[in-house]
From TrEMBL:
<protein>
    <submittedName>
        <fullName>Uncharacterized protein</fullName>
    </submittedName>
</protein>
């Protein structure tokens, strides 16, 4: 049966996507052993702050340093989700401390959480029941600018027109 989850195309600056080079994708975390090897190579300073993540079209979690571009982490492709993720060590095991869908390059909807949860479950990482910080993205139908909706105020910060109630950022909205 074909997966009907929404995928997200890159909507950020074209020059950022043009700079993506093959081989610079985020580190794939398919299994717990992948994560254990990856985390063992991180410094304490790196682990003290969140990481950039994407869930690629194969459902694989990919991790990169926080200041990495999401489109680079994804190798330039579409994703099932994207954002920032932080880890902590609890009772001798690593788990997700916090996770958001904050990616201005992909602007994923909050409904992308199941893809993140599935990738984390496959990797054997404990996680919260949903995004610990949700970002609501909308594209203004008048000026076409991308907006972050704050405090349920669906008004464009650029032209002050109303924003749609439903997610609409990636106008292609292709399905996998």
């Amino acid at each position: 049966m074909q997966d009907r989850r929404r995928s997200y195309g890159y909507v950020g600056p074209a020059d950022v996507k043009a700079a993506v080079r093959s081989g610079n994708e985020g580190h794939p975390i398919r299994l717990r052993a992948d994560f254990d090897r990856w985390v063992a190579e991180r410094s304490g300073a790196e682990l003290a702050e969140p990481f950039t993540f994407v869930v690629d079209m194969d459902g694989v979690l990919r991790l990169a340093p926080r200041r990495s571009e999401h489109v680079t982490c994804a190798g330039g492709g579409r994703v099932l989700s994207a954002g920032e993720i932080a880890f902590s060590r609890e009772t001798g095991r690593w788990a997700v401390l916090g996770v958001s869908n904050h990616s201005t390059g992909y602007c994923p909807d909050t409904s992308s959480w199941p893809a993140v949860a599935e990738a984390l479950d496959r990797a054997g990482l404990g996680h919260p029941p949903g995004f610990t910080s949700e970002v609501v993205f909308r594209r203004c139908l008048t000026c076409q600018e991308h907006n972050i909706v704050r405090e349920n105020y669906f008004v464009c910060v650029f032209c002050e027109n109303d924003l749609p109630a439903l997610w609409n950022v990636d106008s292609c909205d292709e399905r996998p």
